[in-house]
Structures are given as structure tokens and as C-alpha cells.
Amino acid sequence: MTLDHHIATPSRSDEISRDAALIAEIAAGDQDSARLLVQRHSKPLYGLAGRMLNASDAEDVVQEAFIRLWNQAKRWRAEAKIATWLHRVVYNLCIDHLRKKQGIDLDAIPEPTDPSQDLYAHHANQQLANRLDAALGQLPSRQRAAVTLVYHLGFSQLEAAQIMEIGVKALESLLSRARKTLRQSLKDLHNGSSS
């Protein structure tokens, strides 16, 4: 039973091999492979960019990352991990964008609503989501990116450090400072009161 589950779940090396095959097909001009690669990777890339930029700018950044990948397709080294490379490019483009627009706060991203929830629960969840988004928006961009990569997108600390082009210890420090700041910003929620 465990073996069947293991076989049914593609391994990370299978994912890397599939991506490498798609890149080779893209280099040969296969547009269907390009669409498939976008489908496989766009959601987490939008997640990262959307936590750092407004929705319109996030879309531009993700599109730019894929354009850069297509331009690299013929020179792609099979040992390179596409997901990590794409996230690094998106992260760097977001940082560049934020540097150009210094002092502008990120737009809050509304959470999708669940129509099955009662009105009170929905309102409370929306308030919590808004508070969390606001607290995340107040973090410095590098801390916000570290939190997004590790806690929102599920990257390991090693992968997140590679994407951000920093050491694991530096990433751990960013996460620690971010958690401390978030705890302070949201301490009234922990104490049972609300604003």
C-alpha cells in the first residue's frame, strides 16, 4: 500500500526531469510545452510576486520571468532546477520593482470568500486575513519574501535561501526577525482581544 502511494506520487526528481524535457521542447519551438510549463509554475510565482507587489505588477513580473526562461531555453543546463530559477528571477524582479517605487506600500490582496460560511464567521476570517496581510505588508521586503517563500509557498529553507541568493543562516535570521515583528503586530489577537 505504501509502495503504491509512493509510485502514484511523482518525486521531486521526476518533476525536475519533466521540466527539463519541457524546456528542451520549448527550445525546439513547442508552444504546447511552454503553456504546460506556465501552468505548472505560475501559481506559486504569482503567490510570491503577489505578496510583494500589487496584482498588476505581480502579473508583469511573472510574465517577464517566463519570457526570460524562454530566452534561455536553448542554453538551459539540465542540472538546473527550473522552479528555483523562476522563483529567484521573480524575487529579483520584485526587489527591482520595489526599489524603483520606494515608499509605496503594497496593496492588500483580498482573500477568496467561502459562500458556505455564515456572515459572522466570514467577517471574522476576512478581518483576520486583512490584519495578517497588513502585518506582512509592514515587514521589510526581504523578510516578507522569506516568509512568503517558506510559509506560504512551502519551500525548504535551503531552497528559499537559494532563491534569495543568501545563506541559510541569513534566511533563518530574516525569518526569526519577521516572526518577532509579526507576533508584536498581532499580539492583541493572541491575547483574545480584537481591533
Automatic annotation (TrEMBL):
GO terms for biological process: DNA-templated transcription initiation. Pfam families: Sigma70_r2 (PF04542), Sigma70_r4_2 (PF08281). Residues 130-182 form the RNA polymerase sigma factor 70 region 4 type domain. Keywords: DNA-binding, Sigma factor, Transcription, Transcription regulation. One of its GO terms (molecular function) is sigma factor activity. Residues 37-102 form the RNA polymerase sigma-70 region domain. Signal peptide: none annotated. Belongs to the sigma-70 factor family. ECF subfamily. NCBIfam families: PRK05602.1, sigma70-ECF. This is Putative RNA polymerase sigma facter. It comes from Magnetococcus massalia (strain MO-1).
